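Why run this: before we spend reagent on co-expression, it is cheaper to look at a predicted model of the complex and decide which construct boundaries make sense. The entries below are exactly what would go into the expression plan.
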Amino acid sequence: MSIILAALDTSTAARPVMETALRIGQLTGADVQAVHVRVGPRESVDAPEALAALSEVPFKVLEGPVEPALLAAAGAPDVIAVVIGARGTPDGGHPVGHTARHILENTEKPVVVVPPEAVSPRLIQRLLVPLEGTEVSSRTVLERLFPLLVADVELVVIHVFTDTTLPAMLDHPGRDLEILGKEFLTRHFPHSSDIEFRTGSVATRVSEVSHEHDTDLIVLSWSQNPEPERARVIREVLGGSALPVLLLPDSPDSVDDPVKSFSRPEEDLTGMTDGLTR
Amino acid sequence: MALHETFEAIMFDWDGTAVPDRQADASGVRRRIEALSAAGVHVIIVTGTHVGNIDAQLQARPQGRGRLYVCCNRGSEVFAVTDNGPKLVLQHTASPEEDRALDRAAERTVERLRTRGVEANVVSERINRRKIDLIPVPAWADPKKADIALLAAAVTARLASAGIANLAEVVALAADVSRGAGLADPRITSDVKHIEIGLTDKSDSAHWAADWLSRQGIAGGLVLIGGDEFGSIGGVAGSDSLMMVDAFTRAVVVSVGVEPGGSPHRVVRLGNGPKRFIELLDQQLSRRAALRVPNIDLDPAWVIPLPTTRAKERVAEALGALGNGFVGTRGSREEDGRDTGPLFLVNGAYTQDGQLLPGPNWTGLERPGVDRRHTERRLLDLRGGTLVRFGNEGLGERSIRFVSVSSPHALALRAEAPEAHLQPGEPLRPPRDATDFVSEEHGTMFGARTGRAGAEITVAARDRVVTTAGRRVVERLAAWVVAPTGKNRLDDAYDRLAQVEATGFDTLLADHRAAWARRWEDAEVVIEGDPGAELAARFAVFHLLNAAADIGESAVGARGLTGNAYKGHVFWDADVFVLPALAAIRPAAARAMLEYRIRRLPAARAAADAQGLRGARFPWESAGDGRDVTPSSVRGQHNDFIPIATGPHEEHIVADVAWAAAHFAAWTGDTGFLAGAGRELLIDTARYWASRIRTDADGHGHLYGVMGPDEYHEVVDDNAYTNVMARWNLRRGAEFLFRSGDRGTAATWRALADGLVDGWSPQRGLYEQFAGYFELEPLLMSRVAPPPVAADILLGAERVAGSQLIKQADVLMLHHLVPEEVVDGSLESCLAFYGPRTAHGSSLSPAIHASLLARAGEPERALEMFHLAVRLDLDDLTGTTAEGVHLATMGGAWQALAFGFLGVRAEGGMLAVNPYLPDAWCALGLTFRFAGQPIGIRAEHERVTITCQTPLLVRVADRPPASCVPGGTTFPLNAFPTQRSQR
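The model came back. Tokens follow.
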């Protein structure tokens, strides 16, 4: 049996978490299990319990502290993914709250982070897959996304050119991007026959394409290392997304390919501007 | 171990190595040498004795492809031995003065030794040398080679009794005496019993052998050197060590001698004398019989290691593509697995909708159980034109393939691996997404074709599989035909294959290597001080040479035959970037490229007519029939269709074609070309411009609605490049008309040319790229991003179009192509203005800037651009190399070397040379053909040496013309290059 673990708190953000968990359950063919971590003996669990009951989902109360309890629950062998709220309130100060961040950084399971303002998702039919163009990140998506899915979905694959991946030369942009796209997909995502290229801030472009294509879920791989560039991109996407974001941790044994996909010559590109956003 | 390789040539010492002594039975050696010859292996015997001694003992009469040479008399003679016996091919003849000096040297040496108390005799006076016996006593009258240690001890003792430390002291004495006797470069050798004073030694034999072998395409690592005296004896280097000349640095050297004093570290000491040497010969014969995969010379200056990561799989295929101008095969792995894109293309074979037709793939093999990633090396051998693959070392997997240059219809592949890991599978396989692939079996041959009548590629192939002791070899020979004539359209291919098979793999490979050696003679690049750039430049030349056939017509697409980007369409890349390089390094191929344009004049005339214009309007993109095949739009990122403006507006192609024709004629001296077939290229293109120009009320001519090379600004008026090239075209056309008597039209065209605006602004000292350009946002790349960068992707096409940022050299192309048409001194001002505005977002840009910066006296900045250009595909800077290498960049890189750094220009029949080298380069050397003869230029910072075959008029560093004499003339250069002219 496979389980999607829905981590419900007592805030209003629990509702979109519950609803997203149900959709993820449909997507993956897994059962949904709702949990709440009680941090004090007098804390009421009525709200999350009622929410679970309303959704006809089994509910379990875990004893705190929150992060270790959730991590332990997520570590159960039959849990294939965790759904958790990004933060308690839409206007929270951080894109990802402390609890979500802790889970993200410490579980090897895929985690769906649900923003509090997320509108109730329909059936999840269209996934937005932004690829950064490294072998590790692409392999993670390939190896960890597809085994999860039982339902047919449409994939919208994008790559956002940043200061390090912008092509040095395009003899004819339209035609060369076609070649580049074909090559990119062959290298990184042979499951798709189409890719869109954008330039600028990754988070902005992801949000833009997500809106244009009316996607239901954003899928990202991530290194679980909170410091480097990829974590910044994750933070920004999470901060700017009104959609749930499925984060797939890189396989622990992944070693990045020494050759970057479309790297430019070794130059300092600091200060390169994002023209499309100006 | 390197010894367990297949060698293409074996060079060895005779006495002590091949035979125990001069009286020994040499019939075993003879049988093996004749067998090696039959197998195609060249044998070179290097000996101190004369040919009669060797021939009498050996009696070999080889009849095979492998040649037998006897380099005898210590480097003074070379004999070729055939079934008619030895025949002298080279002899170093001493002058009477040299002979007298040799006599004096020998006599004085003996005298000096006697003075010291050593009795010695001059015992023979052979050609170019004198031999002195240091131990003329009966006990050592005829010492055996095996007794060399004892002999050395006896000679040392004899010398010691006279107070002479060792043999080396005698050699030094003889050398000193010889110089005093008038020998400038005495060669003193010793076999311990004797010392010899000569004009030559075994190193001369080795140099001759290296030179001869290199002309066969055989270099160091393919040569086995055998001897028995490499180590020093008595302080004197062993005589066989003289065979280890620089050209054989990578040769495998073995000693079967006793080597009492040890041997140099490079020498593999086998010992056991001639018996062991015979075993080595047998080993080579066994390898040949078992069809073992040949080796290549692993010369880092000539070998490109292909990327091995999965991500760069298709990049490697493009980089490792092989071709002969007629056909090209990508460097795909044989197993045709996931992520690969094997492709076989034929020059000029386009489908009716104007894309290169992929032919049947002939390189596929089944490789079960092969884990290729990170365990193999794939190497492109530029010198020999082969692609080799060294698989898992433990399993001994290997393959080699080539597209024959000497037999253009022949394709060859050989692979070996443990039996379980290699199956031939289908020899001919359909190209990806093929819908018109047909195959059949024809006895033991296989045939396949793609396409339909009119555009069809047929290939026939047959495998030969040999499995010995668990090791399998698959040899595949294939032949292609593109214009079948038989009733069964595969019959022609079967006939071709039969011819190819009659030649055989080994002979095909040998002929192919020799043909590549001849190709390189006219296309050499040497960059001393920058080995990376040298290798990358050779890589560029390699692909240029593969791009164009040298007979008939040749359609050179933007990516040649290395991939299917742009569907193989022919752009101005061919005329302006590739052709000038080929006009110099392979003129016949450049001529074939022009023939492609000449045969499409009717289509170009029809295109002009359709526009209501006259003359010939060549299309921006051209394929089989010469119609414009530029797509009208491309799907954009938002699933919208973006119109492509190049087809209707990038009209400068018309003048580019004419320029290519004129350049070819000027460079090659083929004036008949412009008087004949090429004439209409110049006239009809000029006629087009004459009808295209609009004259305003002030009498000024304009070209409205055009696009220049800078495609960031799509449709503009009076693009300086287009206008000036049109002006040049009109003036050249007018010259021809004037000479042919049509003086009226000539005058009209001249007037039109003179009235055409060119954007020159005397106030600014600049050409304005197009009307209104100076009014655009004065954005500089320094405010955007370090070039090269696709600025239109970074900033958006609209923003870039509204700015002064440009994609590539536009105005500056004029300074590159037609410097006589631009204002003197404007190169520097235009570089200073347009350089900072150039994104180099086109692959065509860096090489041209490299050339111009060098001309402007800025070789260091030029070098940065040059590195960018030659690394463009090797580093996949565009992300599109997977679909073919950028031939125009490669042609531009060669032009940067020749026209930029060497400052070479054709001035009538005279060659102007004005080198500007960056500090890091010690020397730059090129070979090419100019005005019908082979030329070599080697420039250093303070001198330039020009070699030619017949007297050549040259202008060096803008000095008055001087004569360059055959053999080479060196001219001093001003040590301060900025003081030299910058044109």
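The two ends of chain B are 55 Å apart (CA to CA). Residues 434 and 630 of chain B are 23 Å apart (CA to CA). Bring this page to Monday's planning discussion.
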